[in-house]
Design a protein that fits this description.
Blueprint: E1 7-9, E2 16-18, E3 22-27, E4 33-36, E5 44-49, H1 52-61, H2 63-68, H3 74-89
Antiparallel strand pairs: 1-2, 3-4, 3-5
């Protein structure tokens, strides 16, 4: 019997992908929204594909805001974009 692969939906493009293919965006109990590269931190998580395009789509369709049930200031999106650029260059 093969092991079940956990699937998550990208809040940008809406595609279902395996957890390994996605980046977890985290809203910590203290409030800040950060990228969780380990996927293990505590807090409410939402998933994005590892491309800047999906982050832009999520910003446009307010996917992250719906997931976290809060409004997200532009500064937070700019921080996430910087972190995404670093991920893409690795």
């Amino acid at each position: 019997m093969s092991k079940k692969i956990p699937l998550r939906q990208c809040v940008g493009c809406g595609e279902m992908k395996s957890k390994k293919e996605l980046v977890r965006v985290l809203k910590t109990p203290e409030g800040p929204i950060v990228l969780d590269t380990t996927g293990k931190k505590n807090g409410r998580g939402a998933y994005l594909c590892k491309s800047g395009d999906c982050l832009k789509k999520a910003r446009k369709n307010r996917g992250l805001e719906r997931s976290f049930k809060v409004s997200i200031p532009d500064g937070v999106y700019e921080e996430l974009e910087k972190e995404f650029c670093e991920l893409e260059t690795e």
